[in-house]
Amino acid sequence: MRAFTSLSAAALLPVFAAAFSFNFDNSPTQCGNLSLSITGTGTPPYRVLIIPVGPSTLPGNIEVRKITQQNFTGESTQTSFQLKFPSNTQFIAVVSDSTGFGSGGTSGAVTVLSSNDASCFDPHTQVQPLFAYSIVPAGVINQCAPTRIWWDPTLVQGTPTFQGAIPGGQSFSVPEGALSTVPDQGLGFNWTASVRAGTTLLLVGGDDRGPGTAGSSVFIVGQGDNSCLSDQSPSSTPGSPAGGSYPTSTSGSGTGSGGG
Ligand SMILES: *[C@@H]1O[C@H](CO)[C@@H](O)[C@H](O)[C@H]1NC(C)=O
Ligand SMILES: *[C@@H]1O[C@H](CO)[C@@H](O)[C@H](O)[C@H]1NC(C)=O
Ligand SMILES: *[C@@H]1O[C@H](CO)[C@@H](O)[C@H](O)[C@H]1NC(C)=O
C-alpha cells in the first residue's frame, strides 16, 4: 500500500521537471572567458550551444558571431571558454546532457558587457554559414502545420540536423523522418512544428561540421490548429529560463528571471 501511495504522488509531478539546469558563473564580456556550471544531476557529458540573437552592434552591421558548441570535458560539471562576441550583442545558451538537446534548459537573451579586449574577432569580416537550407512555406513556421526543410546535398557533409531553440523556454531537436526529394527543391524532410503560436523560435541548422554551421533563423510561430499540441508542447514560458543570474542590458543590470 505504501509503495502504491508514493507512486501516485510521483505521478503528479510535472513531466518536464528538469533533473538539472545550469548557471552562468560570471558575467559575459567581449572576448572574455565565460564559465558555466551544471546544477543538479544530469547524464554527462554536458555541452552548451551558444546562439547569437538580435542584431550586430558593429559598424556596417558586420556580423562576426558564430554559433558555437562548447563541450564539457569528460564528466565535468563546469566549463570555461572564450566568448568571441562583441559587447552589447546578445546570445542564448542551450545546455544539454547525453539524453538530448536542451535537456538542461535555455537561457533568455544574455547581454555581452564591454571590455578592453577586442582581439577575438575581425570587425571587418562577415561570417558566413557553411551551407544554406530553405523552408517551405518560406519565411513562416505555423503551429501544427507542416514545414519542409531542405538543402542542396552537394554542399553538406553527412546529414544535416536541426534544433529548435526557444529563448527562456524548452529547446528541442527537430525530428527528422525519412528524407525525400521534391522537384525544384532539394533533399529534405517534412516536419510538423508542435510549438505554440506566438513562441519565439530559432531554427538552427548544422551538419557533420557541427551544430549551427548552417546558421539560424528566427521565427515567431504563427497561428494554426491544435491537432499536434499537448501539455508537453514547447513554448517560451516566461518565468522559467535557465542560466541563473546574468546581464540582460549593457548596464549589467537584470537577471534571467524575466524570461525571453
Ligand atoms: C582565459 O582562459 C584561458 C585558458 O584557461 C587563460 O589562459 C586566460 O588567461 C584566461 N583569460 C582571462 C582574461 O582570464
Ligand atoms: C564535441 O562533442 C561532439 C560529440 O558530442 C563532437 O562531435 C565534437 O567534435 C566535439 N567538439 C569539439 C570542439 O571538441
Ligand atoms: C512535404 O512537403 C512538400 C512541400 O510542401 C510537399 O510537396 C510534399 O507532398 C510533402 N510530403 C509529405 C510526405 O507530406
Automatic annotation (TrEMBL):
Assigned keywords, A-Z: Signal
Chain segments carrying region Disordered: 225-260
Low complexity bias spans: 233-252
Domain of life, per lineage: Eukaryota
Signal sequence interval, chain numbering: 1-19
Protein name (Swiss-Prot/TrEMBL): Reelin domain-containing protein
